[in-house]
Design a protein that fits this description.
It contains ten helices and eleven strands. With about 350 residues, it is α/β, with parallel strands linked by helices. Strands 2-1-3-4-5-6 form a six-stranded mixed β-sheet, sandwiched between helices. It has a five-stranded mixed β-sheet with strand order 8-7-9-10-11, with helices on both faces. The model has no long low-confidence stretch (mean pLDDT about 90). This is Carboxysome Shell Carbonic Anhydrase catalytic domain-containing protein. It comes from Candidatus Accumulibacter phosphatis.
Length: about 350
C-alpha cells in the first residue's frame, strides 16, 4: 500500500499500527531467539551514525534483523562527539557493550545519489566531497575517544548510494569497495576483499561485518528488480510526511516516511528547520498531500519509575521545542501540524503516547 497519498488521519493511524505490530513481533519468543542467535554468531556490536533522511535505512538495506544495529541520526549525518549528550550516549553504549566482552564497529556514514546530485544530501548542499570529509573528521573523533589501534572500537567510513541502497566501504589506504559494482556471484570473494580493504580490522569484526555486506548484495538485486518494473522512482525522491524527534524509531523500517532527528545537537533548531522545509517542499511538489504532517517526539526508557518519568519530561520538552520552532519559522505549515508525544519501553520496543 502507498501510504504517502492517504489522508493525514489515516497515515497517523497506520503509523501507530505499524509501531504496535513492530513491538508485538519484537517481543515475540521467535524474534527474541533470532536476535540472541544472531548476536551469539556475530557478537560485534554495530552502531550507525547517519543522516535524518528517511531513505537511509541500514537494517533494511542489509537484511539485518531489527534491534541489532544501534542508530544515531542527525541532519546530514553531521555530528560532533564533543556535543555533551551525544558523547555521553555513545560512550555509555560502547562501555556497556565492551563490558560484556564484545567489540564495536561504528559505521560513520554519508549518502549520495548516483543518478542525480540533487537527490543527495541536502544537509551538505549536495556536496558529497564535503560529506565524506566530515565522516573522516568523525572517525578521528572516535579514535580520540576510544583509541586509534582499533582493537576494541573500529570507526568505519561507509557511503550509502540511495538510488540502489548500495553500501560503499572505505578502506584504510584510501581505496573503497562499492557493492553496487558486485553481484551475488562475488559473494564468495567478499571475505578476501574485506581483509585486503581493512587489514587493521580484527578478524572477529570483519567476520561480523560480512553478513551486512551479504545482505546488501541481495537487497541491491531486489532494488534493481523494482527499477526494472518502474516501481522505484518515487522511493528515491523525498516523500517524507513526518518529523521524528528523539530516539526509538526502529519501527520505521518503511523507507521515505520520516525525517528522524536525534536529540544531540546543541543547536537542535537547525535540523528541525531543515526537516520542516523538506516537508513543506514535499507538499508544494505534490509528492505528499497538503492536508497535514505529523511531529512525533519519542524518548526511550529502560526502567519504570524515575527513568520513565524523566523520559516523559524530555519527550514533552522535545515536542514543545520543535513545535515552537516550526510555528515561528513556518507559520503556514504549522497550521497543518499534528503533534504526538511518546515514550518508548526499550525492552519491548512499545511506543506509549502520553498526554
Amino acid at each position: 500500500m502507498d501510504i504517502h497519498g492517504k489522508p493525514i488521519a489515516e497515515r497517523i493511524d497506520w503509523l501507530f499500527g505499524l509501531a504496535d505490530r513492530h513491538s508485538t513481533i519484537f517481543r515475540s519468543p521467535e524474534a527474541w531467539l533470532a536476535r540472541e542467535r544472531y548476536l551469539a554468531e556475530h557478537p560485534t556490536a554495530i552502531a550507525v551514525l547517519k543522516c535524518m533522511d528517511g531513505r537511509i535505512n541500514i537494517p533494511v538495506a542489509t537484511n539485518t534483523p531489527v534491534g541489532i544495529l544501534m542508530p544515531f541520526r542527525n541532519l546530514g549525518g553531521i555530528f560532533d562527539l564533543g556535543w555533551p549528550h551525544l558523547g555521553e550516549v555513545l560512550a555509555h553504549h560502547v562501555q556497556r557493550v565492551v563490558s560484556a566482552g564484545r567489540h564495536v564497529v561504528v559505521l560513520v556514514t554519508y549518502h549520495y545519489s548516483q543518478g542525480d546530485p540533487k537527490r543527495g544530501c541536502a544537509g551538505f548542499q549536495y556536496d558529497t566531497a564535503a560529506a565524506i570529509a566530515h565522516t573522516y573528521e568523525i572517525r578521528r573523533q572516535v579514535e580520540h575517544i576510544f583509541g586509534s589501534d582499533h582493537g576494541t572500537v573500529y570507526p568505519l567510513v561507509c557511503g550509502f548510494e540511495t538510488d540502489e541502497d548500495a553500501l560503499v566501504i572505505h578502506g584504510t589506504a584510501g581505496d573503497k569497495l562499492d557493492l553496487a559494482t558486485l553481484t551475488s556471484s562475488d559473494r564468495a570473494t567478499l571475505e578476501l576483499r574485506l581483509a585486503a580493504l581493512l587489514p587493521d580490522m580484527p578478524a572477529r569484526m570483519r567476520a561480523d561485518l560480512l553478513p551486512l555486506l551479504y545482505g546488501n548484495l541481495a537487497h541491491i538485486e531486489d532494488v534493481r528488480a523494482q527499477i526494472r518494473r518502474n516501481e522505484r522512482l518515487l522511493d528515491i525522491e523525498h516523500r517524507e510526511w513526518m518529523i521524528c524527534l528523539g530516539r526509538g524509531f526502529d519501527f520505521l523500517h518503511t523507507p521515505n516516511i520520516a525525517l528522524i532527528i536525534g536529540p544531540y545537537s546543541p543547536n537542535l533548531d537547525v535540523p528541525i528547520r531543515r526537516a520542516a522545509g523538506i516537508i513543506e517542499a514535499n507538499m508544494r511538489a505534490g509528492r505528499i498531500p497538503d492536508d497535514g504532517f505529523l511531529l512525533l517526539a519519542s524518548v526511550p526508557y529502560d526502567e519504570i519509575g524515575v527513568d520513565r518519568a524523566r523520559a516523559e519530561l524530555k519527550s514533552r520538552f522535545l515536542s514543545t521545542f520543535a513545535a515552537d520552532v516550526i510555528r515561528a519559522e513556518f507559520p503556514h505549515l504549522s497550521e497543518q501540524m499534528t503533534i504526538r508525544t511518546a515514550v518508548l519501553d526499550w525492552r519491548s520496543r512499545t511506543l506509549e503516547t502520553i498526554a
